[in-house]
Structures are given as structure tokens and as C-alpha cells.
Amino acid sequence: MNRNNLAAWARQRIDEARRASPNLIAPSGDAFMVWGTIGSCGYISAEGDVYLEEDTMDPVPGTFIFRRDERARRQVLFFAARRYPELSAYLPKRSGGDPDCAACIGTGWRSAGEHKIFCETCDGRGWIDMASSGGAA
Ligand SMILES: [Zn+2]
User: How far is the CA of 120 from the centre of ligand 1 (A)?
Assistant: First the structure.
């Protein structure tokens, strides 16, 4: 899948969501919410743009920033692929030498009291991508 395929995928989802679940369409009207949790939502736009919307709570809840860096893109696609497996084609593939993430013991999640939170060390994969981390675990 390339960016054009991703754009076509998103446009189809936006069309379907207009009829069935308009709450999955970004307020801008041109992106589909592929994943969401408290304070963060991931979108894929009709142009194939993958981005993360984060509520900074600063100064008040509802103050959003939009991240389009590679890490945010990976995070959005990682969680999106759990619901839409076809999106896993956009994720880095684990090689035999990539170790489990020590911070989350290979689960992709860490405990915060009774809650589970996304592991920032491995971007939720549960393993360390030696190719993109430059060999640092
Ligand atoms: Zn981890």
C-alpha cells in the first residue's frame, strides 16, 4: 500500500462514516478517526496524511496539538492496524534481531495504577526496532 492507496482507503471510510458513524470524522471533515483514547486520537486524511491529535489540557481541556512526525505516524498506524489489519502493511516489520521491549516486557503497555498506558519506549509494539533506533535499546 502506498500513500495513494491509504488516501483511497480513508476516503472510503469517510464516506461510510458519513452514513453510519459521523463521530468518526474529524471536525475538519476530511479525515477518518482510526483510533482514539483519552486525550489522543489518530486520523488518516483523505489525502493519506496520518496524524495524531493530542489534547494538551493547556490551558484547558480541548486545547489540541497535531503531530505528524514519524513516531506519531507509527503510533497511529500501530493502533489502527489492530482494528483495520490491512493498515499493518504500513508498519515496520520485526526482524529476528529485534529484542522485546524491556520497559513493557514485550506487551506494548505499561501499568499506571489500575490503568494500562501506551508504552512510549517501543511505541506500543512490544519490541525495539534496532534498525530505526540506531542500535540503542
Ligand atoms: Zn515497550
Answer: 6
By residue count, the chain amounts to: 137
Whole-structure pTM value: 0.80
Q: Ligand 1 centre from 110 Cα, in Å?
A: 7
Kindly indicate the confidence band of residue 135, based on its pLDDT and cuts at 50, 70 and 90. Answer: very low
Q: How far is the CA of 125 from the centre of ligand 1 (A)?
A: 7
What residues form DSSP beta bridges with 117? 110
Quote the ligand 1 centre to 14 CA distance (angstroms).
32
Tell me how far the alpha carbon of residue 29 lies from the centroid of ligand 1, in angstroms.
33
Read off the pLDDT of residues 56-91 as tens digits, 9 standing for 90 and up. 989 998 899 999 998 899 889 988 998 999 999 988
